[in-house]
Design brief:
This protein is α/β, with parallel strands linked by helices. The chain has two domains: about 130 residues, 3-Layer(aba) Sandwich (Rossmann fold); about 80 residues, DNA polymerase, domain 1 (Orthogonal Bundle), CATH 1.10.150. Strands 3-2-1-4-5 form a five-stranded parallel beta sheet, sandwiched between helices. Strand 2, helix 6 and strand 3 form a beta-alpha-beta unit. Helix 1 runs antiparallel to helix 4 and helix 2 packs across helix 3. The chain starts with a strand and ends with a helix. The relative contact order is 0.18.
Length: about 210
């Protein structure tokens, strides 16, 4: 019996907030509100992911930063982009991620990481989990970003026949809804509400058979 648990990477296994905070801090250099820079960047990033032509994530970050700067009337310095790249590579897993992954393996599930990030960037983060995923599927592999149905169809093709597939994620638009549309079971983590039924990865583990 083949059982699979797939995971979104950022917001689910990795704490992405320090990365976006680093993007926001660029605003300090140009006397622009950090939140405005951060929010504008996130809008540009998401829009670029949804455009028709695929762009590798490391390049997409650069374009999103330049578009943010253009909209907010400042010019990106090469050191700004370097700082953002560094912030991405040093992102840490949530504290319960390694234990949760271990426990899921112990329950007999294969583990699969599904990420919008590119191969050259994701490995620096994955090594911190100290976990051997059965598969890591990136947007670069698919040439499309989540929530594209093409991404989820590609994953299904790569997994082959599966008796049980559960996708664990935080983002409803990028992960939960398209995973449900693909016919997968889902567990949504709500890290903003400590009283939520599933507020952590360990809570998600408890939901598995």
């Amino acid at each position: 019996m083949k059982k699979v648990v797939s995971f979104a990477g950022f917001d689910t296994l990795f704490n992405v907030q320090p990365f976006y905070e680093a993007v926001g801090r660029i605003g300090n250099r140009y006397d622009i509100d950090e939140k405005k820079v951060r929010d504008t960047y996130r809008q540009k990033e998401r829009a670029l992911m949804q455009q028709g032509e695929f762009m590798k994530y490391s390049k997409l970050m650069e374009v999103a930063l330049n578009e943010t700067a253009e909209e907010l009337n400042f010019t990106i310095d090469p050191s700004d982009f370097s700082d953002v790249l560094i912030a991405h590579t040093v992102m840490e897993p949530f504290p319960d991620a390694p234990t949760a992954l271990y426990n899921i393996k112990e329950k007999g599930y294969e583990t699969v990481l599904l990420t919008n990030h590119s191969k050259d960037l994701i490995q620096a983060n994955v090594v911190k989990l100290e976990h051997n995923f059965d598969q890591i599927i990136t947007a670069e592999d698919v040439q499309a970003y989540k929530p594209s149905a093409r991404f989820f169809a590609y994953v299904a093709q790569q997994l082959g026949d599966v008796d049980e597939h559960v996708h664990i994620a935080v983002d409803p638009t990028k992960d939960i809804q398209p995973a449900q549309a693909a016919g997968w079971q889902v567990i949504q983590i709500d890290r903003q509400d400590d009283n939520a039924k599933v507020a952590s990865l360990m809570d998600a583990v408890d939901q598995l058979g």
